[in-house]
Amino acid sequence: MTVKSDLPQGTLELLVLKVVALGPVHGYAIAQRLQHVSRYVVQVPQGSLYPALHRLENRGLLAADWKETETGREAKFYRLTRKGRAQLEKEAASWERLTEAVGLILRLSQGGAQ
Amino acid sequence: MTWWHRLLRRRQLEDQLDKELHFHLEQHTTDLIARGYDPEEARRQAMLALGGAEQVKEECRDARGTRWFEDLLRDFHYALRTLRQRPGFAAVALLTLALGIGATTVMFTLINGVLLKPLHFPDPDRLFTLNEQTKGITDYRWGDLWAYSYPNYLDCKRQSSSLDMAAWRYKRGTVSAPGEAEHVDGAEISSELFPVLGLTLTRGRAFLPEDDQPGAAPVAIISYGLWQRHYGGNPGAIGKPLVLEGSSYTVVGIAPPGFRLSWEPDVFTPLGQDTRTYMQRRDAHPGIRVWARLRPGVTTEEAQTELAVIGRRLAAQYPKTNTGRGFVARPLRQELVVELVGDDRGTLWLLLGAVSLVLLIACVNVASLLLARAVSRERELAMRVALGASRGRLVRQCLTESAVLGLAGGVLGFWLAVVGSRPFVAFWPGSLPRAEEVQLDWHVLVFALAVSLLSGFLFGLAPALRAPTRDLEQILRAGARTVAGSSRRLHSVFVISEIALAVVLLVAAGILGQTLLRLSSLNPGIDIRNLLVTRAALSPAVLANPARIPAAWQELLDRVCRVPGVQSVATVDTVPMREGNNQIGYWTNAAVPEKHQMPLALSNSVSPDYLKVMGIPLLEGRFFNDHDRMGSKPVIVLDEVMAKHAFGSQDPIGKNLWMPDMPCIGPKGETFYDCTAPYEVVGVVGHVRYWGLAGDDQAHVRDQFYYPFAQVPDPFLARWSELMSIVVRTKIPPLNLLEPLRREVRGAAGDQVLYEVYTMQQLASRSLAQQRFLLLLFGIFAGLALLLACIGIYGVLAYVTSRRVPEIGVRMAFGASARDVMQLVLGQSLVMIFAGVGVGTAAAFIAARLLEHLVTGVRSIEPLTFVAMICVLVAAALMASFLPARRASRVDPMRALREE
Q1: Residues B216-232, mean pLDDT to the nearest whole number
Q2: Which among B23, B51, B65 is the nearest to A46, CB-wise?
Q3: If we measure between CA atoms, which residue out of B6, B21, B14, B20 comes closest to residue B64?
């Protein structure tokens, strides 16, 4: 299954990969962090977060272990695999190219309107 | 984690998923409480944010990619449960399927073993058989392919760099020591044969190139069987002498058990030691077969190209013999299967076809059972659609159910095949060639599996496609007892196709039965009772000296006559209804044309008593007597068919025929097979069904003639004597005389033997074996088909009628009598029966043509057989319809209406 980077679903997965890349983290923390980092601009639907995590795990981009949190509860911590890191780099680059191109086009059409 | 892990550990995954979401909710709740929410409200908010735990779980499960399989498992369990709930239905369906699949698998096991299995040689696909091929000249018997001449073989072998070649040639002879004298089949082989085939000997060594030379020390390889019979399986046999045709050979090796060329040879001698003249002649083709293996890295095309080059080179070098003569390679497997199995191929495919029809009927039956069930489950299915099941999901569930049925039937059927195929092979007429190859292997397993799934799919399709999509409301609202029109139509189609299939099988069985009856009542042209036929081998010492041969035969006949119970005896070279014949071209004037333009006749060289012994009637003129000998005018006697063919309405007696292929010596004494002198016809006798009771009418060569053995010139006597048979007319059952005859014939040196012993009755009966066997099987298949079709008709009518009870109730309430109701139901079934008969008759015509083509003795379509068989079917079908009709006629209108 290939995920196209311009799809919203792909975007969520890209964001998840990026967050996980910063260090092992559990699902709730990912949701929190996404919300904080994006300063509440991006409303991450919590309901699609877990299916996305499981998809990434089954594709071998993420791995998971059960560990204790600081509060002493057991939680499922996700971390990036080598394959996941490669995928992250690829998708991030592709995302940047895409936004750059979209930005270019937008500016171009502005120029055309003047 | 792989797919398999995810599948096998799905319970653990469920727990973890639950735990993970639980943790998420708790954390979120705790956070919200910390921000000042009321605990109850915090919990509600957290759940809202997640958006329904069950839905998230479902999506996570989908992410695993094992969903379809879990569904399959669930459907599977469901199917098993529903089958268990209706054991009667399950039993009937399973039995029907097991019979169909079992019978089909048995037939496929046979075909797989006999026709499809590769040879028992390593890397068999790189083995080829080589032939000489002529351009332009087409021989009347063998087309444009020829066996090799020995010099051509040697040149090809030397010049080829792409093929490793080996040659062999049929040979037979009497092994007179050690042990009791026995006449055996054998082969002269080149030293390369075993290495080329990739076989190692059980013991000892293969021939060496230095054995394969003229004048080398005589050595022999013996078969595993001969080793057991004559040497008691003693390893010390190597190096011991073996006396074959009076000469002593040293045994150097023992062939692997079961080794066979086209036959199973018992003795092998080096081909290169054969120094007879035809081995040196490039224009002689003494039946030398060449097998070859592609060298590593060489393609078939390269080998063919190289053979063509060699062919052109030899043609330039030896224009007299090799002009227009090339060499071709063909796959050995194909060649050998054709040679070994021959006519049985058609029979096998025919039976597989017939048995598939039975399977098809079985499938239709189960389909109609399932359909009836699907209709009664229509409301259940509609309910599920209303609750959100997709149509695809329902179709999948239906197909899973039928696949479960199909597989269960397949397992039973496979078991039937395991039990049934051995006895079936043993039952094959004559003996089935390559029977030892008939085993259940993975090919058969795959076939059975495929057949089971395919039939499951076939009979599951109709009910599955009826999974409801539209008019849910109507279905849910409608009473349980209405039969949708489309289901009734589909049921009729099932019944019609069942009847059509049954008609095909019944008519086929009828045609075969009728053929067998007709053939058995034919006059074979000879008196087959109390007649023993056997080949006889003279002492090898006699054969070495042709001048002694005529006297030796006379002495052998005298000895036979002395055995009490023997009435008369004669010699003959070829015997009616047995393998082997001599075909010779003839012409009515001296201007003899090219060989392939002459009509052919079967030749028999006989002693004067032959006619009397066989009981062939003399129609005109005379048969031979002791005055027909070397030096007197060459004479022949024709059968009535040849007399008519050659001379029409003229009187053949005293006329001449020219036959250049007859054994005679030309003016200079060295010419073979090139007779210019005519033969005088002195008598006409009755026609003999030489090709068997079944085959004779359709045979290509039906002309027969006889010539006196006493007029065969000396140089031919040894060759003629090698294959001579005697026919013995007895006063008591002939097989009782076998032992006394063997003892009496053995002779002074104890090395004269009888072999290939038959009674004429056995030969005549054997000539109908194929027909008898096919009739038996087709009879069984047709019976099965008839039974299944009747069950089908009964089932469908009973079902449809039971659904119509309310309607019938109304009719009766309005004054219809029991008779009217019977007529209504029977009329409905008659329509289906006749539609089926119509379709079936058309198909049966095709089947009849096929039989005519494949089975010798079947004549063109006989209307009476058709009519008789169709009457049987209609009667049986009506009987099956009678029960439901009578039940319908006894419906109590009041009760029926109340039920509605």
Answers
A1: 91
A2: B51
A3: B6
Distance CA A77, CA A68 (A): 9
CB contact under 8 A, A47 and B1: no
Interface contact flag, A51 B59, Cβ < 8 Å: yes
**Type and span of the H or E element at A75:** strand A74-80
Residues 1-40 of A with CB under 8 A from B: 26-28, 31
Neighbours of B535 (CB within 10 A): 21
B62/A33 Cα distance (integer angstroms)? 26
B10 touches chain A (CB under 8 A): no
Greatest extent of chain A over all pairs of C-alpha atoms, in Å: 62
Q: How far is Cα B502 from Cα B837, in angstroms, rounded to an integer?
A: 9
Answer yes or no: are the C-beta atoms of B617 and B530 closer than 8 Å: no
Residue B50 CB partners (closer than 8 Å, separation 6+):
A46, A47, B21, B24, B25, B28, B56
Residue of B196, B186, B203 lying closest to B262 (CA atoms): B186
- For B257-274, what is each residue's pLDDT tens digit? 878 887 788 999 999 998
Residue B185 pairs in a beta bridge with B172
Calculate helix-pair angle for B53-64, B67-85, nearest 10 degrees: 100
Please say whether the beta carbons of A107 and A33 come within 8 A: no
Q: In b/e form, how buried is each residue of B113-134, taking b as 16+ CB within 10 angstroms?
A: bbbebebebeebebbbbbbbbb
Residues of B in Cβ contact (< 8 Å) with A73: 23, 26
DSSP summary character for residue B696: G
* Token code pair at residue B766: 């054997």
Contact (Cβ atoms closer than 8 angstroms) between residue B640 and residue B686: yes
**Positive/negative CA dihedral, B801, B803, B804, B809:** positive
Rg of chain A over Cα atoms, rounded to whole angstroms, equals 16
Please write the tens of the pLDDT for every residue from B280-339: 888 877 788 999 999 999 999 999 999 999 999 999 999 888 888 889 998 887 777 666
What is the CA B219 to chain-centroid distance, rounded? Answer: 39
| pLDDT tens per residue, range B121-157 | 888 889 999 988 877 555 444 557 788 889 999 999 9
Distance CA B507, CA B513 (A): 10
Distance CA B150, CA B287 (A): 9
Cα distances (Å, whole numbers) of residue A97 to A93, A102, B366: 6, 9, 61
Best of B2, B15, B20, B26 to disrupt the A interface (most A CBs within 10 Å) is B20
Tell me which residue of B689, B676, B661, B667 sits closest to B605, measured CA to CA: B661
Name the residue among A48, A55, A76 with its Cβ closest to that of B16: A76
Confidence of residue B238 (pLDDT cuts 50, 70, 90): very high
Tokens of B558: 């005298």
pLDDT at A23: 86
Amino acid found at B288:
I
* Token duo for residue B633: 């005018």
For A64, nearest residue in chain B (alpha carbons): B1
Helix axes B67-85, B87-111, angle to 10 degrees: 110
Task: List the single residue in A with minimal CA-CA distance to B4.
Answer: A58
